[in-house]
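Service request form, structural biology core

Requester: graduate student, group of Dr. S.
Request type: structure prediction, single chain
Budget code: on file
Notes: please return the result as structure tokens.

Sequence provided:
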Amino acid sequence: MPAAAIPHSLLDLSPITAGGSAAESFANTRDLAQHAERLGYRRYWLAEHHGMPGIASAATSLVIAHVAQATKSIRVGAGGIMLPNHAPLVIAEQFGTLATLYPDRIDLGLGRAPGSDQKVARALRRGAHSSPDDFPDDVIELQNYFQPPENYDGVRAVPGEGLRVPVWILGSSLYGAQLAAAMGLPYAFASHFAPAQLLSAFELYRARFRAAAASGIAKPYAMPCFNVIAAETDAEAHELASSVQQAFINLATRGPLPLPAPVANYTQTLSSREWQIINQMLRYTAVGSPESIEAQLTQFLELTGADELMITAPIYDHAARLRSIEITAEAMRSLQTRADFRAGPPDRPASAERVARAHQSTQ
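Core staff response, request fulfilled:
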């Protein structure tokens, strides 16, 4: 098979900047999504977080609708919905509604973390019987709501039933890799802030993947998330990167705050403890000029063997963020993947017949 450019996508948290507002963040998200669509990004995902002064995407399905309405072809989805916070039926109805309004454009990534601390979790009315240990059963229940009504004898999701909304498993540890492999689902790893187990998770996922007749894909499909902060020069990019560096140090030492403005020569002021935080959480981050970014992207793709790359660009200035994703798209277009690249991302679950054949071949 001839080599082909690897798909690239974008994760957005609708960041609220220091001195900014949620309204400005939503306007920037709309503009960024339209720009990403023009640049050829495959997906635009938003993430569920709660009680975070620097993140505006708490009502994730609403922000997805905001983006989908403003765009025409880019796939829009959740990266992800924290399923323990919700009844699976509610999520089936929400994403069934989105998939009905925006056919063949909606993705549903699922995570089991609360996306918050315990106080916020209680405020979300997570009951005493709610547990992350229920996550596999909740995923199965949610998938069942998307089946045709004749295939599920129970409560019906209307809208939702029969739509087969593509489901992904998200994770930052080996747990998600094991679950995605067992359920035959595509897998996205949060290496943009939790890099430690990325390579082990991908190795486990690929080794244990079993196609499932009920849902999923015929082959493993792994997508890491990667911070990319690009500018015209290395020096400019490193100054832009100081915003996310400050944000993670704040998170570890003071708690979550709005995304700070960049600071020149910021890393020269860091203590050994602060360097440790940055190196631990931002290990997989590309920073630099177009030439530097292309080299760093190449290295990361070779390291991970990614089937698709999810980019995040945590940059304070909106114009600089737009330019960063332009540079990234240009770099991705110039890269070619290995000859056995899987042609095309899993935009919808494979048919039961095709997955059943793949399942038989793994036995």
